[in-house]
Every structure is written in structure tokens, then in C-alpha cells.
Specification:
This protein is of the alpha+beta class. The strands form 3 sheets. The protein has a 6-stranded antiparallel beta barrel with strand order 3-4-5-8-10-9. Strands 6, 7, 11, 12 and 13 form a 5-stranded antiparallel sheet that branches. The longest helix has 11 residues. The radius of gyration is 28 Å and the shape is flat. The N and C termini lie far apart (70 Å).
């Protein structure tokens, strides 16, 4: 093996041999530092003895009560509210969380059943709908799974970088789904609703 292709371990072994010592991969493993401790931002039952609860030092610039990562990722439900210097908890609601509770209006270009339309939609940053886009106005026609009367419905889309059949005015792409609800009953979207009659 040429000197250029020798590994670091081979070089260390050759140096140790010159000094009358022994260097092996086993010794190298013993010299390696211990595995780093694991970190998390929310309590978990699987935390071991080496687990460290992370403390984010970067505060959110828009609120006095959370770390930047909490507000950026919408993790208010998992974060504990910090306290004032005297130990009293913050009494006021988090302004970032309160702002996120208001859905963000968007315009959506969507292709369904070969027809493209531009619809009004709302992007949710908080609650059970967090990270999803809800189409407004019930522009679709759906048939309930239990065979009852069909009717109009909306659509809830999830973000997707692969499916490009829907794109909003923020440049985000969404995955079109056919699962819906008509009168609280699970249903399947089969087409568009147009002028009082189903289309498609």
C-alpha cells in the first residue's frame, strides 16, 4: 500500500510499532469518546440516564414567553411556559400562538377530474388542522360511504412536494385527497359541484 492510500489507523499502527508499542482498532475504539447524550424538547418516557432536557437559549423575537424554535415549529402545546425572574409564571397569552390561531387566507389553483379552478382556502398553523389547507365554499360533490344521499363538501389538503396538482399563491404544493365528509358522514369526493348539479 502506498503512503498516500494508507488509513489513519495504519499510520498510527506503524508509528506505534516503531516505538515498540501496539495499536489496534480495538484500542482505537477504547480511546473514542462516549456517545453524546440525547436531547429532546418534550418529556418522553423513553429518556435514559444520559438524557438531557434541552434548553433553548435563543428567545423568540416576537414574544416574551417562548423559545424561537417553539414558535417557529408551532410547539406551544409541548412547551412549558417560562417564568419571570421572581418565579411567577407569565399570565398573558403568547402573542405568537394567538396569531397562529387565525387561519391564513390563500388562493389555490387545483386540478381535479381534469378541471382546473382557482379557489379560496385557509392555511392552519394551530390546532388539529395544523399544517393543512382547507378549501372554502364547498365546491365539490361527494357520495357518503354508507350509501346515503350525496351532497356538497370541501376538501382538506396536506402539503406535498411530489404531488403538484394543487399550488397556492405562496408557492406551496399540496396533495389532493378524495376523502371528505357530508353531513358528518365519511364520504368520497367524485367531482365538482356546479350550478346545483354535480360535474365530472
Amino acid at each position: 500500500m502506498s503512503p498516500r492510500k494508507q488509513t489513519t489507523a495504519a499510520k498510527k499502527a506503524r508509528t506505534a510499532a516503531r516505538a515498540g508499542e501496539k495499536y489496534t482498532a480495538a484500542l482505537r475504539r477504547e480511546e473514542a469518546p462516549a456517545a453524546p447524550a440525547t436531547y429532546s424538547y418534550a418529556p418522553t418516557a423513553e429518556a435514559g440516564d444520559d438524557h438531557v432536557w434541552a434548553r433553548i437559549v435563543e428567545d423568540c423575537p416576537r414574544c416574551p414567553c417562548h423559545a424561537a424554535r417553539v414558535c417557529a415549529d408551532g410547539l406551544w402545546g409541548q412547551a412549558s411556559r417560562p417564568a419571570h425572574a421572581d418565579g411567577t409564571p407569565y399570565a398573558a397569552p403568547c402573542p405568537c400562538e394567538e396569531t397562529a390561531k387565525i387561519p391564513e387566507p390563500r388562493r389555490l389553483d387545483i386540478v381535479f377530474k381534469g378541471v382546473i379552478r382557482t379557489l379560496d382556502a385557509e392555511y392552519h398553523r394551530h390546532g388539529p388542522m395544523r399544517g393543512r389547507l382547507r378549501v372554502l365554499g364547498y365546491p365539490f360533490w361527494a357520495e357518503p360511504d354508507d350509501g346515503s344521499a350525496p351532497g356538497r363538501c370541501g376538501m382538506v389538503l396536506t402539503r406535498s412536494r411530489v404531488m403538484r396538482t394543487a399550488r397556492d399563491d405562496h408557492g406551496d404544493t399540496w396533495q389532493v385527497t378524495t376523502g371528505a365528509s357530508v353531513g358528518g358522514r365519511p364520504a368520497t369526493i367524485t367531482g365538482w359541484w356546479t350550478d346545483g348539479a354535480p360535474e365530472g
